[in-house]
């Protein structure tokens, strides 16, 4: 699940510093925007400006700024021994590479699934040790927890961790600066499928397709690692692989003149400017130091 934090833009002078060619772009976005259907660039309907260096240090990537019909599929909370292998099967049949933001405790419990994902060309990046809401912690405690998670995940993968997506997308601004100081690029999403609650496969597939737009980063889940279950009837029981397969069929059946291409987050951002937001959760809860 995700937070409904609101990004807070701040003015500044332009900078050419970016992940890909050209300047990164800062946008003002609300969580409600992630439910909008994809039409054109993510920056088109939003306030946007080039990112200065100071803002870049506290900003979070939402997607890429491009007119190309390319998207990144991202999966949170796994690996899951029941759902993730079937998802990998679908991705392999379709020759699609995705990015998996994993929970370290799950990765350590299922290193074979992690190895398979890496061997098949997917990215495995950090979502957290578990699904603890980091914005409820103090900055030092949160940064220490992410540092530990990064180190432990690198022991599983044998590769450097480049990207981090905080659980629920929840972070404070000082935490975001601290996470970036660990050498991590913070990545959220530009659209979601709300697949953290149960629904029928066709309905979930429709929500996967809905936020497709050039440069999109789509938030999906290969399991639900969130401990805040709430209503037990909302716990997802559908097949993640069937939902993805159905969504891809919908896209291919749409008769579009140009098909969609798929990239990992790293591939998407390597050759294109990033769309960023200063994204932070505000909370009145007292945080431990």
What are the main properties of this structure?
six-stranded parallel β-sheet, 29% helix, disordered C terminus, 289 residues, 12 strands, alpha/beta, four-stranded mixed β-sheet
Description:
The protein is α/β, with parallel strands linked by helices and 289 residues long. It has a single domain, classed as Glycoside hydrolase/deacetylase (TIM Barrel, Alpha-Beta Barrel). 29% of the residues lie in helices and 16% in strands. It has nine helices and twelve strands. The strands form three sheets. Strands 4, 5, 6, 9, 10 and 11 form a six-stranded parallel beta sheet that branches. The chain has a four-stranded mixed beta sheet with strand order 2-1-12-3, with no helix packed on it. Helix 6 (173-181) links the parallel strand 7 and strand 8 (185-186). The chain is globular and about 45 Å long. The model is unreliable at 2-18 and 284-289 (pLDDT under 50).
């Amino acid at each position: 699940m995700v937070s409904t934090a609101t990004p807070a833009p701040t003015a500044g002078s332009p900078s050419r510093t970016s992940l890909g060619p050209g300047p990164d772009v800062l946008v003002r976005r609300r969580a409600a925007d992630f439910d909008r259907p994809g039409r054109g660039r993510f920056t088109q309907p939003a306030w946007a400006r080039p990112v200065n260096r100071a803002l870049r240090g506290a900003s979070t990537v939402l997607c890429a700024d491009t007119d190309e019909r390319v998207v990144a599929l991202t999966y949170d909370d796994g690996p899951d021994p029941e759902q993730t292998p079937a998802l990998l099967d679908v991705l392999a049949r379709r020759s699609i590479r995705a990015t998996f933001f994993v929970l370290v405790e799950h990765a350590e419990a299922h290193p074979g699934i992690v190895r398979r994902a890496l061997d098949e060309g997917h990215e495995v990046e950090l979502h957290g040790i578990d699904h603890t809401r980091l914005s409820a912690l103090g900055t030092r405690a949160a940064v220490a927890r992410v540092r530990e998670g990064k180190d432990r995940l690198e022991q599983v993968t044998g590769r450097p961790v480049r990207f981090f997506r905080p659980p629920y997308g929840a972070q404070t601004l000082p935490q975001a600066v601290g996470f970036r100081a660990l050498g991590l690029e913070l990545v959220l999403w530009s659209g979601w499928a709300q697949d953290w609650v149960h629904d029928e496969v066709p309905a979930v597939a429709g929500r996967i397709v809905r936020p497709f737009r050039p440069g999109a980063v789509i938030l999906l889940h290969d399991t639900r690692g969130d401990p805040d279950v709430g209503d037990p009837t909302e716990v997802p029981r559908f097949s993640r692989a069937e939902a993805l397969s159905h969504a891809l069929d919908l896209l291919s059946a749409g008769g579009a003149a140009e098909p969609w291409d798929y990239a990992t987050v790293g591939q998407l951002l390597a050759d294109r400017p990033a769309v960023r937001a200063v994204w932070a959760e505000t909370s009145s809860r007292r945080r431990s130091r």
